[in-house]
User: Fold Transcriptional regulator from Sphingobacterium paucimobilis HER1398.
Amino acid sequence: MLDSLITSKTRLKLLIKFFVSASNRGYLRGIAEEFNESTNAIRKELNQLTEAGYLIREEGEQKVYYRANSAHALFGSLQGLIHHFLGIDQVIEQVLERAGDVEQVVLFGDYAVGVNSGHIEVLVTGKDIDSAYLLQAAGKAEKLLNKRVSLYLEAPGQIKTKIILYQKDSL
Assistant:
């Protein structure tokens, strides 16, 4: 659905990366490596999204970082659209409400790089996690979204690309 509206795969990947979670940020070379794309393609899209006000450019640590502009009038709408596109908005809400003391929820696999493959992979970490509930929730999510959902309590090997969907505040 969204991939037919936004025809640039690079732009779609960037929107997913930055709008799935307002805390996500990245720099040019890191994003290019993460997406396995040229720095020129990434730079072009980052510049356009920044000029339009969707991203904020910040200089620091000898690198220029980008993040979503949460003050932009369309931030909430774009984030909701990305969550709906990924099909994870309802899953995350249920997991946070009932799965225990969740510390982090991470999206990885195809959807983390902007590929709508029909297989959503999510890592849930925390204390006293109700694994039986998570398995049940994954089954319900599969039927609801008509996509395969894999929930993990431990990282399955090395995760190349990931997007943090939820991070518990460490106050």
About this structure: Strands lie at 25-27, 55-60, 63-68, 101-108, 119-127, 148-152, 162-167.
